[in-house]
């Protein structure tokens, strides 16, 4: 993967990245962090709860590309803190998009499968009308709309089931629980296709390197489909440093306590992104297995 980042750096574009320490931002930081043409900012440098300073940052650094990986992603927490979620996922994004427009920068932004209600029986296409059913999904969809309304050049990637070696995610949660003594109950009627932060960052680099026409919204995930229950089973099969005596039980969403509504279908139609990058997205196991093995070494 370093090849794509090296190609990007050779173009000498000035790139401003928000969200330095998140699941996705940490990958960009890992591969681009020591280059003088790249400015990466974390929450201490650019707090999206106080977004009035964002235009000054953009104006002074004058980037060709702005990559926004910052977001309020606590799905249950958003139900209790809707104003905070809206400020970070919508209002700050609006200011970011307007500043991008004023600076003639291209904004790259990441959204979510939660903009849909999950009722569709087939894969979601980017042209399907969103119908978010929780606060997180609603604020992310509003953020998308603010970007489009701003008139700036942009790429929006809707991502489903993001997984990384960094931050909090499903693999780390399951590995932790598999080291405990209690059996697990995992939802088996929510379907999706996980994707690694590494692959998302790689696709982002490809888009920039190939000078793809802007003002595009893409769906981005891997090939195949899996439930959270089957994903947990797969993690238990691959991992070595766990308690193999723990039993993983399937349960329905209706039996799992959650403050926020969760879509049952998070599968994406990938035809648009595959046409643009001129290659097929990998099967989810091929993308995710290396991360499971790497994280397992820490347990």
Task: Give a brief rundown of this model.
The chain contains 11 helices and 12 strands.
Keywords for this structure?
alpha/beta; 299 residues; 12 strands; single chain; 11 helices
Report on the structure:
The structure is a single chain. α6 links the parallel β4 and β5. 40% of the residues lie in helices and 16% in strands. By secondary structure, the protein is an alpha/beta fold. It has one domain (2-168, 194-223, 266-283): Rossmann fold, CATH 3.40.50. α3 (54-61) runs parallel beside α5. The protein is globular and about 55 Å long. It is built from eleven helices and twelve strands. The two termini are 26 Å apart.
Percent of residues in helices: 40-55%
- How many domain regions? 1
Low-confidence stretches: none
Choose one word for the global shape.
globular
| End-to-end Cα distance | 26 Å
Biggest sheet layout: 6 strands, parallel
Mean pLDDT: 94
Number of helices: 11
The CATH topology corresponds to Rossmann fold
Rg over alpha carbons:
19 Å
Write the layout of secondary structure elements.
Blueprint: H1 2-10, E1 15-18, H2 25-32, E2 38-41, H3 54-61, E3 65-68, H4 75-80, H5 82-103, E4 106-112, H6 135-150, E5 153-159, E6 162-163, H7 170-177, E7 184-187, E8 191-192, E9 195-196, H8 197-209, E10 216-220, E11 226-227, H9 228-238, E12 248-251, H10 271-277, H11 284-296
Parallel strand pairs: 1-2, 1-3, 3-4, 4-5, 5-10, 6-9, 7-12
Antiparallel strand pairs: 8-11
Helix pairs in contact: 1-8, 3-5, 5-6
């Amino acid at each position: 993967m370093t090849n794509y980042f090296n190609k990007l750096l050779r173009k000498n574009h000035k790139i401003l990245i928000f969200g330095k320490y998140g699941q996705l931002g940490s990958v960009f930081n890992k591969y681009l962090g020591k280059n003088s043409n790249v400015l990466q900012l974390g929450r201490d440098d650019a707090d999206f709860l106080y977004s009035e300073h964002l235009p000054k940052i953009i104006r002074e650094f004058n980037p060709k590309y702005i990559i926004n990986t910052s977001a309020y992603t606590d799905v249950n927490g958003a139900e209790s803190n809707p104003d905070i979620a809206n400020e970070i996922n919508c209002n700050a994004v609006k200011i970011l998009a307007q500043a991008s427009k004023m600076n003639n920068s291209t904004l790259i932004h990441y959204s979510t499968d939660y903009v849909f209600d999950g009722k569709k029986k087939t894969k979601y296409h980017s042209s399907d009308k969103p119908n978010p059913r929780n606060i997180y999904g609603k604020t992310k969809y509003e953020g998308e709309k603010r970007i489009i309304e701003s008139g700036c050049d942009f790429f929006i990637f809707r991502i489903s089931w993001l997984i990384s070696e960094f931050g909090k995610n499903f693999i780390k949660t399951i590995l932790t629980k598999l080291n405990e003594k209690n059996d697990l109950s995992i939802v088996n009627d929510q379907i999706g296709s996980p994707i690694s932060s590494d692959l998302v960052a790689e696709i982002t680099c490809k888009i920039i390197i190939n000078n793809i026409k802007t003002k595009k919204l893409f769906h981005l995930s891997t090939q195949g489909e899996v439930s959270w229950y089957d994903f947990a089973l797969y993690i238990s099969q691959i991992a070595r440093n766990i308690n193999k005596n723990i039993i993983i039980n399937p349960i329905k969403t209706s039996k799992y306590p959650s403050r926020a509504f969760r879509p049952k279908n998070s599968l994406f139609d990938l035809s648009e992104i595959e046409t643009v990058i001129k290659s097929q997205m990998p099967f989810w196991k091929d993308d995710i297995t290396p991360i499971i093995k790497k994280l397992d070494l820490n347990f």
